[in-house]
Specification:
Layout: H1 5-16, E1 24-27, H2 29-34, H3 37-74, H4 80-105, H5 110-136, E2 141-144, H6 162-168, H7 175-180, E3 193-195, E4 201-203
Length: about 210
Amino acid sequence: MKKGLIFVTLLSFSAIGSVKAQKLGYVDSEYITSKMPAYQKALAEVDKFAEKWSKDIQDKYSEIDKLQKTYQAEEILLTEDMKRDRLRIISDKEREAREYNNRVFGYEGLLFEKKKELMKPVTETVIRAIDKVAAQKRLDMVLDKASEGVVMLYTNPKHDYTDYVMEELGLTADQKAKSAAPSETPNSGPQEKELNPAGNFKSNTSKPTKQPK
């Protein structure tokens, strides 16, 4: 999912301090993708590439290990020049193995790029479904519960639109969660929140006024 992007949008609304009511909802993208066959297939492909590259790296270190053992066994028979050549070859092989390992499994390495490539169609499909549900339910903002950039200390199930997105994707929705989701009657639905001039959220439900005796 677009981790952190929705959170930035939320902060921008808060900074503006708009008093316009914002209808909010959230989804759990991690749960949604876990139910998608396309996601499972992409994940299996990622694992295949990871296993292949891991084997390539292991083969490189196995070759280095053989060279080291051969050198130790023949060291007494080698001249100084031959020793230097053997050690240089071993050192070069070790450097190549480290560089290859970093190129594959390092920051934004080959595995990262391959995963991004294989997951892109899944991500785009989920985002389109979220956009469609947001339009249907007239949501101004949708948060991702699974996003690392959003800390959700408490979530009311009636603001959860995960099952609606799953239905849009043709997946089996969690009926227990669906029963807690908002209905579409005029006087129901996710409770709207307002941003007061200070930029903080406040509920539309006012506290009852205490009547004088």
